[in-house]
Amino acid sequence: MKDDLRSIQAEFHAALKSVSTEKDLAELRVRFLGKKGSLTSILRGLGQLSPEERQTFGKRVNDLKADMERALEGASGALLQKELETRLEAEWVDVTLGGLRGGGSRPVGNLHPLTQIQYEIEDVFTAMGFEILDGPQVETEYFNFEALNIPKDHPARDMQDTFYLEDGHLLRTHTSPIQVRGMQRLRPPFKIIAPGKVFRCERIDASHESTFHQIEGMMVDRDIKVAHLIFFMKVLLSGIFGKEEELRLRPGYFPFVEPGFELDIRCLLCRGKGCPVCKQVGWLELLPCGMVHPNVLRAGKIDPNEYSGFAFGLGLDRLVMMRYGIEDIRHFHGADLRFLQQFR
Fold first, then answer.
1. Do 250 and 260 form a contact (C-beta atoms < 8 A)?
2. 3-state class of 266 per DSSP?
């Protein structure tokens, strides 16, 4: 049996030298270490030996088996390294070379339609002297509700459908908290806008999403009137649509403004005839607005007896839908590149 072990060992190492693929390596393992392999057959014959011989010879068999396992593992690593080097050689690219020539071209990305219109709106307002502010998406109840005249027991909290976090914070339901933070930092007179993403637990349909975008705006100075609000809104929408669109202003309730209004735009998809986006009424709610409530001014450390202001919250997604004739708000968060490529 000693001669058989030497023969198996020599045969194994000779065969190992000719292995060139992982498949060859697997076949070699089965040939020598499998259930019907050469070394396994030797192990089955140990029962014919005396206990002393079985102990000595069994150790030699186990040592040979361990040697084969190490050799197979080393050969596997060498094959993987060789495969990697072959791929690197085949896929090697000189990054110092110039771009494609001879008419070739690479696809060029573009800004998301929401980003494009946000930038346009920012340009319109900055041209009128407004400052752009930003704020956290994870907010406290104070900035999202209480500082906006919405205390804990206020029924308006039911209007917000809020995502609450385990630590007591929440995902902001509007960008109005940015205005509160801005009032605490700035002193009147000032004009600010606050674009950003907001979150509400909405039932998703053609005109509602759980994640959407708003642009809040505020102007605070002495003797600010509703006429100032209407003027700036007309300038904004004329700048976006390139012409004056049909608007209507109707009373609306919002705890942070008094009086409050709903500014609607005649649906540009159906031209007032009725469609799923405008819920068949011909008008689309676009912009809640009004005169800043005195309690909100006080939360921003501004004296309401000396200053007044207007505020508005623009639904950016719906504005973009009107601008480009998009029939479903869900396209904005979809993964269809064909949709995005239309806005280059």
1. no
2. strand
Q: Quick: pLDDT tens for 67-106.
A: 888 888 888 888 888 888 888 888 877 777 766 555 556 6
| Residue 82: predicted pLDDT | 86
**pTM for the full model?**
0.62
d(CA 333, CA 206): 12
| Buried/exposed code over 93-119 (b: 16+ C-beta within 10 A; e: otherwise) | eeeeeeeeeeeeeeeeeeeebbebbbe
DSSP class of residue 202 equals: P
Burial of 307 (0-12, 13-18, 19+ CB in 10 A): buried
Cα separation values, 239 from 29, 125, 214, 272, 328, Å: 75, 10, 17, 21, 23
Could you tell me if 160 and 199 are in contact, meaning their C-beta atoms sit under 8 angstroms apart?
no
pLDDT in tens, 244-295: 778 888 898 888 999 999 888 888 778 788 888 778 888 887 788 999 999 9
Cβ neighbours of 24 (radius 10 Å): 15
Question: How far is 243 from 40, CA to CA, in rounded Å?
Answer: 88
- The closest alpha carbon to 289, from 318, 315, 268, belongs to 315
- What band does 135 get if pLDDT is binned at 50, 70 and 90? very high
pLDDT, the chain, mean? 84
Residue 98 pLDDT? 65
Integer Cα distance of 118 and 254 in angstroms: 24
CA distance 112 to 316: 13
User: Quick one: pLDDT band at residue 2, thresholds 50, 70, 90?
Assistant: low
Which residue in 259, 260, 282, 256 sits closest to 269, CA to CA? 282
Give the integer Cα–Cα distance in Å for 83 and 338.
Answer: 38
What is the C-alpha to C-alpha distance for residues 321 and 337, in angstroms, rounded to an integer?
A: 17
Asked if 135 and 175 count as a contact pair (C-beta separation under 8 A), the reply is: yes
Using N-to-C axis directions, what is the helix angle for 316-324 and 113-127, rounded to 10°?
A: 110
CA distance 247 to 264: 6
Query: H-helix or E-strand containing 123?
Result: helix 113-127
Specify the higher pLDDT residue, 222 or 7: 222
